[in-house]
Amino acid sequence: MQWTDADLPVADARCRYCRHQGDFPHWKSFTFENRRFSLYRCPSCASLIYVPLEILAAAQKIDLAEIARVQAGHIEIGDKYYLEVGYSTDHIALCVLAALAGVPRAEQQRHAFVDIGAGLGLSSYLAHRQFGMDTITVEPSLTGYLGSRLLGLDVYPAYIEDLPASVLERLASKPTLLHLNSVIEHLREPAEVIRALIARTHIEAIAAIVPDGGAIDPNSSFAAMLPYLAPGDHLHLPTEAGMRQFFEGLGFPIFAMRRVGLLLVAVGARQPMTFPDNSEVESTRNRFLRDLTEHPNPMLAGGAAGRLLPHAVLARDEEMLIRLRQLYAERGTPQSFIARLQQGAGWNEIPFNLGPTAFWLAVDAYSTGRSAEGHAWCDLIEVCADRLVTDYPIYASQTLHLRNESRLHRAHNLAAAGEWNAALHWVDALIGSAGDRTLGASTDQIERAQALRVALVAAPGKLGWLCRLRRVVLARWRERSLRRQRNS
Length: 488
What we know:
Layout: E1 2-4, E2 11-14, E3 21-24, E4 26-32, E5 35-41, E6 48-50, H1 64-71, H2 77-84, H3 89-100, E7 112-116, H4 122-131, E8 134-138, H5 142-151, E9 155-156, H6 165-172, E10 176-181, H7 190-199, E11 203-211, H8 222-229, E12 236-237, H9 240-249, E13 254-260, E14 263-269, H10 278-293, H11 298-315, H12 318-331, H13 334-342, H14 354-367, H15 371-391, H16 397-416, H17 420-431, H18 443-458, H19 463-487
Parallel strand pairs: 7-8, 7-10, 8-9, 10-11
Antiparallel strand pairs: 1-4, 2-3, 4-5, 5-6, 6-12, 11-14, 13-14
Helix pairs in contact: 1-5, 3-4, 3-10, 10-11, 11-12, 11-14, 13-15, 14-15, 14-16, 15-16, 16-17, 16-18, 16-19, 17-18
């Protein structure tokens, strides 16, 4: 699993986005699972295409027993993790609002929101609950059955190339806003598939979430790029220019786009539209999360509360914080969770977002002068991270990152209270993790810890100066966290 230095000749290829055909220069190759994959760059729009264009894993028919399991309400560990941690409501809110952007609010209920590649169906759920839209939800995987069970959605188990007649009839009955969630990059001929759909329906806008081919960085770790490269699954990776020409070729003259991490949220529309601003996305997200916290399924409700908490802490939304503090007080104390973890309680009963939740409750406690409570939540993060990295290392990265952040927060709080040796203990614990590729802190965290250590060693007793330093550091951290939350 690594980049290689292969220098391959040009390939005769065709771009699925700008339709350029001819010699494509070799861009980069890599090995994955004992196979070599080669990416070539379109000389016109710079989109990337795999040569040869092959899908390694054929679509698997879902076992009827698995469908029955989900419909009976049996949730497996992977599903539980997804509900509690594994999706971004910022992303969902942005994509839904982008699809609706060209339609006046008074006309939205005249349109159908068609969610293809819907996953759990949360975009459909939001469009229906907040905007009252008629939704058509299409998801071929087992996740779609889970969404039908939990959210009460009517989910069609189909692929975009083979939509059932009942879906096509509904699509033809009213104007449609098409939401394609990680669909286009999987299709051999995406323009042909979508053009055939347009010919039978009344599609007014398409909002597509695709990997950003222009953001693939061969100088970054291969593991960080792998979910977007997805060899043998993704066939091509568009750029902004590629998506603009792709939508123009489909007859959508209006184009708008926003980058979200290594993804593009691209919209092609027939009517003028602008992307929603951050305040609209945040407002929609918060309403959506508040709604989900009332859901009867504890994993879905608990996941929503855990996602709402950091936004409430960073915005100092006291009304919401009072509600969330009460909610978590009813669920248990840091000490009770620590005892359950140490006694071997399984993740079927311990929430996967316990570590992140404990971190944000610690930040909230420190921000309001409740230092002892903050320390207790930080103790819980330590125990939770150790258990999670042992039991499910694939799910541990967020908790490990926040454990290192919690050590910095605790050290600052202890130092401000004049407890120099205790503060140094947590600073040194963080710095000492630098060589551990699994548990170690990030470069940024190490640098901040080293700066704090210098201050602690050089200025014992200068409490006022250190408190000012703490305020500056925490203000910068808050700004970074807000940006990270928006782009997560």
